[in-house]
């Protein structure tokens, strides 16, 4: 059990490291689509976005290394060096090898690990200049050389296996899409959906574009013009734009009358965020742990959406997530985009009536259904966390002062910086590795403003706070400097 918890903690660090390079995707997709012939027809803008897609593997090597190393740029340099070395070596060993983004992911992980191990190494005086952080790019390049030779021999069958897996999922048709959709949602609680998404969106399948460049992954191939790409993304739009906002409406309607006003603001803002941007975690975490039956239904409905869009031949993509913004940007190169909206409208009613029925039929404790005295906590009730649960609701404006106060309260509850081994933000989560979590109270964190608290093994913690996660982490990191 202890080993499995440690494994989950390691996977959590990999998952959060993947988010750094993925964060550049919206900018790349935006530029690529705005400059396209069917939009503004400005080649300069298109090529600006293409520059990011063309070097995605290198960006993964840099970004993941920085993420694993806790933000140090030296690790990023080492990741870049390692990627350049391993691709050149494997190319010499076997010209048919194409590791794609996986080469960047592997070297990012290796460079981050080597940084953590050797960034403070001491060498003999006559080699002293190359000690410390300067040693990291050197040892990474040597590791990349060795790995390049090894992968030159072992990668061809691995490459065939990855391609076979991708082809199996695609060949399984609607069943494969359904399985992927269910797995995608079921991995959300532990933050590991980024791992499976990285394989599907950046590795599976290959396409040679007009310039003769080979691109891999459903997302890359879609924006490169592959007519067969977009099947792994289309099914998310009905769920994110229509389904989950309808679930919010169902939870508002089924809340106790005295609690309905308190949760309406939270649910409406979360629904609008999901519709526009495709960020759904604030909604999902509101019922994920308190009503897991609903989350299981949600995962199945996501799988069905993936299967339905596949069967109907709908193909579209996104640079960030399946919200209205990405829907509009991809409209010109999508297949049957209007049909996708029709499915979305149907999904709105399906989610609403299924959620409403399940909540009332099984008396599920969704937000607002518990008596205030029995523990209903409105995350927006008091950002300072000082008021009791029955205190009047205050509107949270999320001003800079509000964020600072929340950061101070989180830091206090977590035991201060002395108790924090590492801290980073995801899109909606504060990801932490603590030295000792025994004194940390989940309920106290929720009263400060957290939607949920996820324990990822011993001393590894995720605090779900919504889209202001990065701002809170930045403020938390300022406190040592500000005293």
SSE arrangement:
Elements: H1 2-22, H2 25-34, H3 43-54, H4 56-68, H5 73-93, H6 101-118, H7 135-171, H8 174-186, H9 193-202, E1 206-208, E2 214-216, H10 218-224, H11 236-253, H12 257-277, H13 281-287, H14 292-311, H15 324-330, H16 337-361, H17 400-413, E3 420-425, E4 429-434, H18 442-448, E5 452-455, E6 460-464, H19 469-482
Helix pairs in contact: 1-4, 1-9, 2-3, 4-5, 4-6, 5-6, 5-7, 6-7, 7-8, 8-14, 11-12, 11-16, 14-16, 17-19
Low-confidence stretches: 372-396
User: How does the helix and strand content classify structurally?
Assistant: mainly alpha
Fraction of residues in β-strands: 5-15%
Treating each run of at least 4 consecutive H or I residues as one helix, how many helices?
A: 19
Rg: 23 Å
Largest sheet: 4 strands, antiparallel
Give the topology string: H per helix, E per strand. HHHHHHHHHEEHHHHHHHHEEHEEH
Number of strands: 6
Strand arrangement across the biggest beta sheet: 3-4-6-5
Mean pLDDT: 85
């Amino acid at each position: 059990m202890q080993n499995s918890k440690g494994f989950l903690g390691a996977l959590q660090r990999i998952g959060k490291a993947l988010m750094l390079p993925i964060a550049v995707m919206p900018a790349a997709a935006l530029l690529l689509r705005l400059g396209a012939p069917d939009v503004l027809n400005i080649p300069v803008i298109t090529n600006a976005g293409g520059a990011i897609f063309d070097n995605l593997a290198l960006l993964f090597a840099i970004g993941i290394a920085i993420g694993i190393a806790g933000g140090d740029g030296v690790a990023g340099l080492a990741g870049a060096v390692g990627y350049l070395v391993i691709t050149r070596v494997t190319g010499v060993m076997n010209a048919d090898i194409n590791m794609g983004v996986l080469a960047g992911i592997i070297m990012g992980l290796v460079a981050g690990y080597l940084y953590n191990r050797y960034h403070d190494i001491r060498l003999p005086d006559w080699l002293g200049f190359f000690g410390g952080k300067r040693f990291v790019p050197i040892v990474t390049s040597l590791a990349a050389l060795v790995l390049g030779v090894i992968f030159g021999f072992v990668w061809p069958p691995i490459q065939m296996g990855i391609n076979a897996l991708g082809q199996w999922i695609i060949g399984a048709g609607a069943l494969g899409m359904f399985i992927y959709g269910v797995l995608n949602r079921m991995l959300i609680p532990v933050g590991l959906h980024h791992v499976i998404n990285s394989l599907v969106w950046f590795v599976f399948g290959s396409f040679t574009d007009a310039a003769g460049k080979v691109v891999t992954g459903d997302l890359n191939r879609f924006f490169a013009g592959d007519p067969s790409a977009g099947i792994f993304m289309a099914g998310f739009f009905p769920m994110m734009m229509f389904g989950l906002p309808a679930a919010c409406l169902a939870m508002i309607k089924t809340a106790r009358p005295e609690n309905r006003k308190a949760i309406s603001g939270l649910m409406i803002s979360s629904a609008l965020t999901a519709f526009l941007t495709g960020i759904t975690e604030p909604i999902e975490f509101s019922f994920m742990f308190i009503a897991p039956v609903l989350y299981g239904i949600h995962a199945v409905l996501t799988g069905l959406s993936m299967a339905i869009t596949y069967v109907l031949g709908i193909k579209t993509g996104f640079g960030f997530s399946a919200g209205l913004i990405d829907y509009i940007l991809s409209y010109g190169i999508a297949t049957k985009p209007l049909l996708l909206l029709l499915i979305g409208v149907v999904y709105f009613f399906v989610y609403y009536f299924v959620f409403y029925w399940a909540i009332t039929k099984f008396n599920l404790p969704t937000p607002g259904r518990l008596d205030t005295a029995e523990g209903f906590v409105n995350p927006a009730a008091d950002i300072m966390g000082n008021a009791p649960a029955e205190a009047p609701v205050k509107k949270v404006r999320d001003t800079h002062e509000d964020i600072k106060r929340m950061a101070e309260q989180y830091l206090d509850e977590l035991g201060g910086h002395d108790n924090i081994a590492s801290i980073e933000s995801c899109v909606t989560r504060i990801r932490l590795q603590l030295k000792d979590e025994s004194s940390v109270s989940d309920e106290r964190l929720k009263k400060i403003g957290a939607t949920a608290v996820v324990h990822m093994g011993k001393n590894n913690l995720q605090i779900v706070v919504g889209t202001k996660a990065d701002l809170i982490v930045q403020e938390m990191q300022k406190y040592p400097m500000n005293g």
